[in-house]
Specification:
single chain, 131 residues, Rossmann fold, five-stranded parallel β-sheet, 5 helices, 7 strands, 40% helix, 21% strand
Amino acid sequence: MVPAEWGMTISVLVVDDDADLRSGLRALLEVHGLEVLDAGTLREADALARLYEPAVLLIDGMLPDGNGIEWISILRSEGMATEIIFMSSFFAKGRWLGVLSKLGVRHRINKRETPIERIAEIVVQAMPLQT
C-alpha cells in the first residue's frame, strides 16, 4: 500500500471478499493505467476509501462484516459523491434496484453472469473524465 503522504491518486477501490476476483480485477485495471487498491472487508474498505478518496468504488453486496448497500448509504449520507459500481449475485432484483438508484448508483453488475473482463470494462467506462 502507498502511504497517503506520497500524494498518489487512487483511481479504483475494489471491495470484494473473493481474493482471486480482486487480484484479477487489479491486473486488468492496471493494464488501463488505473491505480487500484482492494479490500476484502467493509472495515478495510472504509479506511481506504476515507484515506485515498478513490474516483470509483466497486463494491460487492455481501461481505464478511456487512452489507455493501448499507455502507453505500452511509457514504452517501456523509456526502461522498464518488462514482459507485455495485456488484453482487444476490441483490439484482426487486426493491434493491430502487434503493441503489436512490443512492446514486448507476452501474449494477451481476457477478455470476458477468465475465471479469466485462467488469473491468465497466469500471474503466465509469471513470470520471480528467480535466
